[in-house]
């Protein structure tokens, strides 16, 4: 499968096209491209964008369009979806969109697929209409996609043009044991959303590995973990930058969605013990600090989980600090390659 690394640990980027407080999506997209270009120079494996809807702080709703924008502004880094929420779309439409992307940018496009709506239930109904129970069709819809991409589909009545016969790697994304079992049964790589849903992470990846069935796409199980990474020159600087993400997730917990706010010196006056505990639980897999701290914490994480790839997401308000965080993270992973 294209883009699967057999040795060492790979490192990649997840971008939600986060909108900063006081800014607009028009300001956001050039920031994403600038980060992707830096990631390419630093040796990151892939740059994924996530589908979300009806969120003022997230501008990646038209995911396939943004993938084209990022791929068009880079040269060789893999670009893809982390993920496309397949029940929101007809499989044929997804096949045609990603077939178009893969035709424009050969051997560079990944298709990560999720089951959730990527939004609230009211917005999900607006997206899905009468197809509100499409999540139950998720396994079958994945197989439809695989048929559309297959060269053997050339004699079918319905064909994906472009898309047919193209090598477009499909990944299963998830945050539960159900997604793990599905990825295992289909013999596909598995990406876990541990950056906001840590509860079932360990159990899910164990089940995936135990039940994995080799396929024409993948012979051995492959696990990617998405985690929050906020790196800075000092632990104190990193903790300060992290307060933007803490405030952002306060909005997730309370339902009061907002754009990514500026960091603050102290969070104590902003939340109570219950809200703090809820946010910290969701962000359990967050690596925050100086390179030395991150290296030790990530070394322990990799030893415990054995994941083949870490996808880092960094909700940092200051864009220079965000770029620097990804620079430091790349250095940390390169150092870890020598220890693993």
Would you mind describing this structure in some detail?
The chain has helices at 25-42, 63-72, 91-104, 121-128, 138-149, 177-186, 201-211, 235-254, 273-282, 291-305, 319-337, and strands at residues 10-15, 46-49, 78-85, 109-114, 170-174, 190-192, 223-231, 286-289, 309-313. The longest helix has 20 residues, at 235-254. The chain has an eight-stranded parallel beta barrel, surrounded by eight helices. 47% of the residues are buried. With 340 residues, the protein is of the alpha/beta class. It has eleven helices and nine strands. The protein starts with 9 loop residues before the first strand and ends with a helix. β3, α3 (91-104) and β4 form a beta-alpha-beta unit. The model has no long low-confidence stretch (mean pLDDT 93). Helix content is 43%, strand content 15%. The chain has two domains: 7-168, TIM Barrel (Alpha-Beta Barrel), CATH 3.20.20.30; 225-340, no CATH class.
Set down the secondary structure blueprint:
Elements: E1 10-15, H1 25-42, E2 46-49, H2 63-72, E3 78-85, H3 91-104, E4 109-114, H4 121-128, H5 138-149, E5 170-174, H6 177-186, E6 190-192, H7 201-211, E7 223-231, H8 235-254, H9 273-282, E8 286-289, H10 291-305, E9 309-313, H11 319-337
Parallel strand pairs: 1-2, 1-9, 2-3, 3-4, 4-5, 5-6, 6-7, 7-8, 7-9
- Helix-strand sequence: EHEHEHEHHEHEHEHHEHEH
CATH superfamily of the largest domain: Luciferase-like domain
- Cα end-to-end separation: 23 Å
Spans with pLDDT under 50 lasting ≥5 residues? Answer: none
What is the spatial order of strands in the main beta sheet?
Answer: 1-2-3-4-5-6-7-9
- CATH class call of the largest domain: Alpha Beta
Q: What's the total count of β strands?
A: 9
Tell me the major beta sheet: 8 strands, parallel, barrel
CATH architecture call of the largest domain: Alpha-Beta Barrel
Overall number of structural domains:
2
Radius of gyration: 19 Å
**Beta fraction of the residues?**
5-15%
Here the CATH topology of the largest domain equals TIM Barrel
Q: Helical amount among residues, as a percent range?
A: 40-55%
- Our count of helices gives 11
Organism: Filimonas zeae
Family: To bacterial alkanal monooxygenase alpha and beta chains.
GO molecular function: oxidoreductase activity, acting on paired donors, with incorporation or reduction of molecular oxygen
Protein name: Luciferase-like monooxygenase
């Amino acid at each position: 499968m294209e883009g699967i690394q057999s040795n060492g640990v790979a490192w990649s980027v997840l971008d939600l096209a986060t909108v900063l407080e006081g800014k607009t999506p028009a300001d956001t997209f050039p920031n994403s491209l600038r980060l992707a270009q830096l990631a390419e120079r630093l040796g990151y494996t892939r740059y994924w964008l996530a589908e979300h809807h009806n969120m003022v702080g997230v501008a990646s709703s038209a995911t396939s369009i943004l993938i084209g924008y990022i791929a068009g502004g880079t040269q060789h880094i893999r670009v893809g979806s982390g993920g496309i929420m397949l029940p929101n779309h007809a499989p044929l439409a997804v096949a045609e969109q990603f077939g178009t992307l893969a035709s424009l940018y050969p051997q560079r496009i990944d298709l990560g697929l999720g089951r959730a709506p990527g939004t609230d239930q009211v917005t999900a109904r607006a997206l899905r209409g009468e197809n509100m129970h499409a999540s139950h069709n998720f396994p079958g819809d994945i197989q439809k996609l695989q048929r559309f991409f297959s060269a053997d589909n050339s004699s079918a009545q319905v064909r994906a043009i472009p898309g047919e016969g193209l090598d477009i790697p499909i990944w299963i994304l998830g945050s539960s044991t159900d997604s793990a079992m599905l990825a295992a049964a289909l013999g596909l790589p598995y990406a876990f959303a541990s950056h906001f849903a840590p509860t079932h992470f360990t159990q899910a990846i164990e089940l995936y590995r135990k039940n994995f069935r080799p396929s024409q796409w993948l012979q051995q199980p492959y696990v990617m973990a998405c985690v929050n990474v906020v790196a800075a020159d000092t632990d104190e600087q990193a903790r300060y930058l992290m307060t933007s993400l803490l405030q952002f997730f306060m909005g997730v917990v309370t339902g009061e969605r907002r754009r990514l706010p500026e960091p603050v010196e102290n969070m104590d006056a902003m939340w109570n013990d219950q809200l703090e505990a809820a946010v910290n639980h969701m962000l359990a897999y967050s690596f925050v600090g100086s390179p030395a701290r991150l290296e030790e914490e990530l070394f322990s994480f990799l030893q415990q989980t054995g994941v083949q790839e870490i996808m880092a997401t960094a909700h940092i308000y200051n864009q220079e600090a965000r770029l620097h965080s990804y620079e430091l993270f790349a250095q940390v992973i390169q150092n870890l390659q020598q220890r693993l």
